Amino acid sequence: MGIVLKGNVCYSQTINKLRTVENCYLVCEGKYLLGVFKTLPMLYKEFPLADYGDCLIIPGLCDLHVHAPQFAFRGLGMDMELLDWLNTYTFPEESKYIEIDYANKAYGIFTEALKRSATTRACIFATLHTPATMLLMEKLEKSGIVSMVGKVGMDRNCPDILRQVSAEAAYLSTKAWIEDSLDKFERTTPIITPRFIPTCSDELMRGFKKLQAQYSLPVQSHLSENIGEVEWVSELCPSSASYADAYEQFGLFGSEGAPTVMAHCVYCNEKDDELLQKNGVYVAHCPQSNINLASGIAPVRRYLKKGINTGLGSDVAGGCHLSILRAMSDAVGASKLYWRLISEEYEPLTLNEAFYLGTTGGGSFFGKVGKFEPGYEFDALVIDDSTIPTTNPLTLEERLARVIYCSNDSHIIAKYVRGEKLNNEPDK
Question: Cα–Cα distance between 428 and 416 in angstroms, integer?
Answer without folding.
Answer: 21
